[in-house]
């Protein structure tokens, strides 16, 4: 794949709006590989927990976890990753895991702040998933809070889900405490080209950086990152997203799917410390899932520069 083909029109539009330099774009293009380097292969094989982006039968993206004893993921070759199990919520949300379905994956090692990602398509599905890798790349440790799991990820309790409303107590509680979430997004035509497939990425901030208003909108700041704009490019070109908001204290989570837009309004952006843009999401469905994670996790250390970023109640701009 040549460098020009690594970014689709939505990503290029956001890069242009953000005034990303030619040199930065070239560096980003070189960082996105067609296969997993050896260190990424080893990394994925050592993870007990990863997150996937998958579509449901209506074409809506969801971010869902997959976990097991380290080694459940096997790098068969630089372009093939085999997952020895299915994501626990695939059946519950009717996710497409058929051969040919697009998939995004992020491995994030909370204890070390390492994270690596890949995008590709599913080639087989039985007791697990076999993935052909089309894009493989790493991300820096920015905005990742250091955590340790409370117990083994090997024998989790089965998840139990319940559909909830944005203003419910459980939603407000998890949103108010959240310092981490994962967002799945999709291109306009995921089957057409690898660069328009599915993507799943991590977002982090101070508790309170994910906000909601009375009109049923969730909002979060987009801080300075790697300048790839995979997620924002997908939002620009399509808009459908899925969020996984973990409750690390209980092992539960909020899962939602909806539509996102990007707000570049200067007054709104500058009022939120550290923000370069604001992303607004109108949810279609919200679910509270107990035991969505294999175990609880303890906070060890927040990202060192996190106190330079804002929270909604500090910005005095939560929309009515």
Q: How does this model look, in words?
A:
The protein has 320 residues and is of the alpha+beta class. The chain has one domain: Roll (Pnp Oxidase, Chain A), CATH 2.30.110. 17% of the residues lie in helices and 39% in strands. It has seven helices and 17 strands. Strands 9, 10, 11, 12, 13, 14, 15 and 16 form an eight-stranded antiparallel β-sheet that branches. It has a seven-stranded antiparallel β-sheet with strand order 2-1-5-6-7-4-3, covered by helices on one side. β6 and β7 form a beta hairpin. The longest helix has 10 residues, at 22-31. The mean pLDDT is 91.
How would you summarize the topology of this molecule?
Layout: H1 9-17, H2 22-31, H3 38-45, E1 49-55, E2 61-67, E3 73-77, E4 80-83, E5 102-109, E6 114-125, E7 129-139, E8 146-149, E9 160-163, H4 169-177, E10 180-186, E11 198-204, E12 211-212, E13 218-223, H5 230-237, E14 240-247, E15 252-263, H6 266-270, E16 275-290, E17 297-301, H7 312-315
Antiparallel strand pairs: 1-2, 1-5, 3-4, 4-7, 5-6, 6-7, 8-17, 9-16, 10-11, 10-14, 12-13, 13-16, 14-15, 15-16
Helix pairs in contact: 1-5
């Amino acid at each position: 794949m040549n460098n020009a083909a690594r970014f689709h029109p939505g990503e290029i539009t956001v890069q242009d709006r953000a005034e990303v330099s030619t040199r930065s774009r070239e560096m980003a293009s070189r960082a996105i590989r067609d296969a997993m380097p050896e260190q990424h292969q080893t990394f994925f094989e050592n993870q007990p927990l990863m997150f996937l982006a998958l579509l449901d039968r209506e074409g809506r993206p969801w971010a869902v976890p997959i976990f097991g004893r380290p080694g459940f993921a096997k790098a068969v070759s630089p372009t093939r990753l085999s997952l020895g199990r299915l994501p626990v919520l695939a059946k519950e949300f009717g996710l497409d895991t058929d051969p040919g379905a697009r998939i995004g994956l992020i491995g994030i090692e909370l204890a070390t702040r390492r994270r690596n990602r890949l995008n590709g398509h599913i080639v087989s599905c039985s007791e697990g998933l076999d993935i052909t890798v089309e894009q493989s790349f790493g991300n820096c440790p920015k905005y990742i809070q250091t955590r340790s799991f409370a117990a083994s990820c090997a024998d989790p309790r089965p998840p139990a889900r319940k559909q909830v409303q944005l203003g419910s107590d459980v939603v407000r509680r998890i949103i108010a405490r959240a310092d981490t979430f994962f967002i799945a997004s999709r291109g306009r035509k995921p089957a057409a080209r690898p660069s328009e497939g599915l993507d799943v990425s991590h977002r982090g901030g101070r508790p309170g950086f994910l906000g909601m208003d009375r009109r049923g909108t969730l909002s979060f700041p987009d801080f300075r990152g790697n300048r790839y704009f995979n997620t924002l490019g997908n939002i620009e070109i399509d808009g459908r997203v899925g969020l996984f908001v973990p409750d690390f204290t209980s092992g539960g989570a909020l899962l939602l799917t909806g539509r996102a837009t990007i707000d570049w309004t200067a007054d709104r952006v500058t009022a939120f410390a550290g923000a370069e843009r604001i992303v607004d999401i109108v949810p279609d469905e919200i679910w509270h899932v107990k035991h969505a994670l294999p175990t609880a996790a303890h906070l060890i250390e927040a990202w060192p520069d996190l106190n330079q970023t804002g929270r909604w109640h500090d910005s005095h701009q939560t929309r009515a």
